[in-house]
Specification:
about 270 residues, about 35% helix
Length: about 270
C-alpha cells in the first residue's frame, strides 16, 4: 500500500519453457509458467484494486498474447493450442505435483498459452467485478512479437537467430523492444485507451499472416506500425463460466482471504 495511490499498473512478467521436458516449480509450489505468468499477476492485481480505486483515471493492464487466442494464426494454427479444459489441475490445488491447468502432463509450450488465457480472463473478471465501483479501466493487450527478448532464451541458438528474421520478413509479426514499450505506455497513458474490458492490438492483431503493402512493410499481422484498435478475443477466452471458475480457483490457490480481497463492491 502506498501513501499516494498507484494510478497505472502493467503486469508483464512471463517465462516460456517450450523445450523443458519436466516442469520447474516456483518457491510456493506452482508450475513456473502458470505461477509467474498468471498466479503472481492475479494476486497482485487483487491486492492493488483498493489502492488504485483512490486514484483518478486509474488503469490496470495485464499483458496477453495472440498465443492464448485461438482465433489468431499463432494461437489457432500453431500447435499446441491453449485449452484449460475444465480446470481439473486448478481444482486439484494447482500446486506440485499438478503440472497443468487441465490436470494433464506437462507441456511447456501449452503451459505458456494456458497462462495467457488466464491473464485475459482475469482482466475481464476484474472489469466485471470492480470497474463500476472503482472506475479503474482494466485491459489486456498484445504488443506484437518481440522476437529478440530473453523470453526465448530456452530455445536453441539457431532458433533465436532465425526467429526474428522469420517474424520480420515472413509473417510480419515482428516488433522491436522500443516500439513494444511504447505500445505498453500507450495503453496506460493515451486518452483513447481509457475504456475498460478491452483487448488492445495494433496492425491487424495477428489474425492473418502479414501482407506486404506499397510502403514495403507487412500489414495485418500485429507487427510494427499500424494503429491501435480494440481486438476480438477468442470464444474460449470469453467463456464466462470457465472464467468465473478460473477466478474462484485462482483465489483459493494463492490464498486470497476475505481480508485480502478488494473492499470495492463487486458488480
Amino acid at each position: 500500500k502506498s501513501i499516494r495511490p498507484v494510478d497505472n499498473l502493467i503486469c508483464n512478467a512471463a517465462v516460456y519453457k517450450p523445450t523443458d521436458p519436466e516442469p520447474a516449480w516456483t518457491d510456493d509450489g506452482f508450475e513456473q509458467s502458470m505461477g509467474i505468468n498468471h498466479f503472481g499477476h492475479f494476486l497482485l492485481a487483487n491486492l492493488m484494486v483498493d489502492d488504485m480505486a483512490k486514484a483518478k483515471g486509474a488503469r490496470m493492464c495485464i499483458v496477453g498474447s495472440i498465443t492464448g487466442n485461438t482465433n489468431t494464426v499463432g494461437g489457432g494454427l500453431v500447435y499446441p493450442r491453449a485449452d484449460l479444459g475444465q480446470l481439473q489441475g486448478f481444482e486439484s490445488g494447482a500446486k506440485k505435483p499438478i503440472e497443468m491447468a487441465d490436470g494433464k502432463p506437462f507441456f511447456g509450450a501449452k503451459a505458456y498459452k494456458d497462462s495467457k488465457v488466464c491473464n485475459m480472463m482475469t482482466v475481464s473478471e476484474l472489469h466485471r467485478r470492480y470497474h463500476d465501483s472503482t472506475g479503474i479501466a482494466f485491459s489486456s493487450m498484445y504488443p506484437g512479437c518481440i522476437a529478440e527478448t530473453s523470453l526465448f532464451r530456452e530455445k536453441r541458438p539457431w532458433f533465436r537467430k532465425a526467429f526474428p528474421w522469420f517474424m520480420k520478413y515472413v509473417t510480419g509479426g515482428y516488433v522491436g523492444m522500443e516500439e513494444a514499450g511504447e505500445r505498453l505506455a500507450q495503453v496506460v497513458d493515451d486518452p483513447q485507451c481509457s475504456k475498460s474490458d478491452v483487448y488492445w492490438s495494433w496492425n491487424g492483431g495477428a489474425q492473418q499472416v502479414g501482407r506486404w503493402s506499397e510502403d514495403g512493410k507487412p500489414k495485418g499481422a500485429g507487427g510494427s506500425g499500424g494503429e491501435i484498435f480494440e481486438n476480438a478475443q477468442s470464444d474460449a477466452v470469453r467463456d464466462r463460466e470457465i472464467a468465473k471458475k478460473m477466478w474462484d480457483l485462482s483465489a483459493k490457490a494463492v490464498g486470497l482471504t476475505e481480508k485480502d480481497k478488494p473492499k470495492a463492491a463487486e458488480s
